[in-house]
């Protein structure tokens, strides 16, 4: 019983999670669960968790931390009443010693007592806000993945985690730039204000037509290239660190939480529920 | 050569830090280094650091994390070019097994290689913003410490850290309440918007005249009692946890950082300096 994207777009949050948990849906989550925070995912052994958490704290724009599991506990209790991180993401990537070694739709059989799961805010949140403000985004209008580039902006290292900041690109009309900056700054848990706009070479990007991740977009000459910190940054840092095991979401296949996208604080108190 | 508060009010940041580091000033820091972020402090063995960091992530309003040291490194490299956490806070409290066992002005001789220092945002930041907006605060006008109470609002626990949320009280004129909420919400790293306003009993406070910490303030009958999450919350959680060693700032004696109070992100990149 596979569920289609169109069916799930009409689903409420519990049904949506049930379908994903049951393995009936393993595709991207853009546009699903509107109004609720979606997140990137990184799961790793506790031995690396403090350094990774420091890395997130030091690089909050690419790595906005919105939830952390207890060690060994797969329930993300602060992000929802019933979120099991082993089953509730549509698809996972497995990294061993920094190399992608496989993808799967369920990680129950490889979950262990020493793992810690980190949920990081993603760009869907501010993209939705830009859409609502009537600001067109080429990659959404053309149903492609946003183009992403490795910039020359160094992250602040922590333990084994370091590397350049990855940025995503959207072309914005000059007369709407201030508004776009103000809107995205309102979402510090979704990468916040852009890191840079204008000349791409200033942040080490030489060819806007050749993104390292995602799809190329049209180069809109009458608009300004605007670059946001991107959630691929921690993934690159994790690969560079070469830690023995890390499990991430498969790009675009996010965790959908119970947290409202405009919540002041992305935390549900499990004691208050 | 003891420096006076009045002398230091006119000092620039490097001079200020030099005086504190040299042990020439060991008093409160309110009003010093205007425009720069001041922080609360908690230093503990690495064995408890991941749980404490999870506690901060889960309780961002009372525990807004703005900086974390590397294990064993006393330099707070993300908060300033030359901040030595062993000497650059005017006065420290020492807790052993959850009990306050002493105060000192320098912790160089008890610093060890397994300690991690956490800097947490404090209310000075939004208080300054309220002042600038012309909103009177009784405790500032009367040079007393803000009254603080133990509420019945549970924190979200992490490992050994748990307990009720401590709140600070300010009376606000009804016609300025919306503005006060909006202003303080702009400072998520300084406790953000109030947790509660109006009837104190709703959050378990029965006598506004008898704060558990700080000084009583005048009960201004024509105004509304407004309660903000308070940085004493992590201190209470640390005491309850009874961890073998924790070093905090002495209340009011904060760390003054190089970070601008209105920075989008409270992080200096040591590699970019």
Automatic annotation (TrEMBL), chains A, B:
InterPro entries: D-Glu_cyclase, Putative_hydro-lyase, UPF0317. Its EC number is 4.2.1.-. Keywords: Lyase. Signal peptide: none annotated. GO terms for biological process: glutamate metabolic process. It holds the Pfam family D-Glu_cyclase. One of its GO terms (molecular function) is D-glutamate cyclase activity. HAMAP family: Hydro_lyase (MF_01830). Belongs to the D-glutamate cyclase family. This is Putative hydro-lyase SAMN05421759_103249. It comes from Roseivivax lentus.
């Amino acid at each position: 019983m596979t569920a289609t994207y169109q069916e799930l777009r009409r689903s409420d949050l519990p049904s949506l999670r049930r379908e994903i948990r049951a393995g009936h849906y393993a595709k991207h989550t853009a546009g699903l669960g509107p109004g609720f925070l979606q997140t990137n995912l990184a799961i790793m052994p506790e031995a690396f968790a403090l350094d990774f958490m420091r890395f997130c704290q030091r690089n909050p724009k690419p790595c906005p931390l919105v939830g952390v599991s207890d060690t060994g506990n797969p329930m993300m209790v602060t992000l929802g009443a019933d979120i099991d991180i082993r089953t509730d993401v549509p698809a996972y990537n497995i990294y061993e010693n920094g190399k992608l070694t496989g993808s799967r739709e369920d990680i129950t059989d490889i979950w262990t007592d020493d793992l810690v799961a980190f949920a990081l805010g993603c760009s869907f949140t501010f993209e939705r806000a830009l859409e609502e403000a009537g600001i067109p985004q080429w990659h959404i209008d053309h149903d492609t993945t946003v183009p992403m580039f490795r910039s020359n902006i160094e992250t602040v290292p922590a333990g084994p985690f370091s590397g350049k900041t990855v940025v995503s690109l959207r072309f914005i009309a000059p007369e709407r730039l201030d508004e776009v900056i103000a809107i995205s700054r309102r979402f510090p848990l979704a990468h916040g204000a852009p890191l840079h706009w204008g000349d791409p070479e200033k942040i080490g990007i030489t060819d806007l037509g050749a993104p390292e991740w995602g799809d190329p977009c049209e180069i809109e000459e009458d608009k300004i290239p605007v670059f946001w910190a991107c959630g691929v940054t921690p993934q690159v840092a994790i690969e560079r660190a070469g830690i023995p095991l890390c499990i991430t979401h498969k790009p675009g296949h996010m965790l959908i939480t119970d947290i409202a996208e405009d919540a002041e604080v992305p935390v549900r108190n499990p004691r208050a529920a």
